[in-house]
Amino acid sequence: MPDIAPSVTYVTVDVFTHERFSGNQLAVIPDASGLTDAQMQQIAAEFRYSEVTFVLPPENPENSARVRIFTPTMEVPFAGHPNVGTAFVLGNRPDIFGKTVAHKLRFEETAGLVEAELVRNADGRVTGAGISAPQGLTVGSEVAAETIAACADLETGDITVETHHPMIVSVGLPFAIAQVKNLDILARACPNKTAFAAADQTYTPAEEQFALFLYVSNPQKPWQFRARMFAPLDNVIEDPATGSASGALAAYLVSLEPESDGTYDIVVEQGVEMGRRSLISVRVVKAAGQIETVRISGDCVAVMQGVIALSFAAS
């Protein structure tokens, strides 16, 4: 077997925030060319962030990079904050695998091509990024309110079905979404791993794990929401910012609107209960009754950089 690089560099960023030590933590390996699948999983488990991204040369030279995303326990086909954070990290570098960094980046991922657009301040410095979801909205099965309540250690009556029943939805990564009645109920939610395991057997395919996105609407501002996301089966007790879930929720709610055409700007506030407040912006475009595009964007701030020591692979 070929030798494996003895070390790789990493960068960490906080995503969906402009304040360091808020938002969602992300580790990025800007050049993971020499790493094996097993090493990528080990590094993700070592960080214990909700995700770590590994940047590789693109298979198609017209694209910017191939990006693989790992949670502490598994590889996932797509996620929101890892793409926003990875685009931010690469946007602050002079080149990607020898090519000058462009204003727009295109990442090859398991879920499909992810297009990212860099956000700059008045001085031209990259301060964040926006990405387009790689897949259209898909709506899966309805989830019983009793199941949602059990997973979040709530009462069934805490779940409201006035706007919609709890559903499995996705724009690249599936989540169960459910609306609760008020902020006090949202604050009381606590994941029950046994209930999650039971729900996983009923509602998710073998390659996925049941994850729950709870939210509360703002009566004064109907397109602003507070949310929490739990994925204890993936060793993510709670996630402070979940772009893929926010995109799926926004797209689903827009799909329920009676108008056949329109552009909707949605803001999801998340991570407040964890002390890591995040703001996720989602723009959904609807045309002829169908969800046309879902764009997820936010600010980022750099936190750390360093070197990970590796062992050589056995011969």
From TrEMBL:
Active site annotation, chain numbering: 51
GO CC annotation: cytoplasm
Any Pfam family: PhzC-PhzF
GO terms, molecular function: isomerase activity
Family, per entry: Belongs to the PhzF family.
The protein, known as: PhzF family phenazine biosynthesis protein
